[in-house]
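[Meeting: bench + compute handoff]

Bench side (C.D.) handed over the final construct sequence. Compute side (W.E.) agreed to return the predicted structure before the next meeting so the bench team could plan truncations. Sequence as handed over:
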Amino acid sequence: MTVGAEPRLNDEKVKEALRLVIDPELGYNIVDLGLVYAVLVNDGGVVNIVMTTTTRGCPATNYMQEGARDAAWSVPGVEFVDVTLTYEPPWSPQKMSIEAKRHLGIGDDGEW
């Protein structure tokens, strides 16, 4: 790598930026809540994000989709962002990271 050159764009950099997007109802980031199903970084800086919400009709859906898009755009090298919303598979507390479960007081079995 050349001195002063930006490190190569990858999915981990985008995921790190997505951790800045907080679900307003749960108060924790969308990555560790398990709401981000996939981050694909393609040639030319094109990023595809597949995500969900905790429930269909979630009032924060647009907020979180726009937040994901804006967070991904903030990563150097990103030229285009597409955020796709899906409900397959349905979200469940088991998708959360251990840190998110602890923050929300959820046991390892996913029980609140």
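W.E. noted at the follow-up: The CA atoms of residues 32 and 60 lie 17 Å apart. C.D. will use this when planning the next construct.
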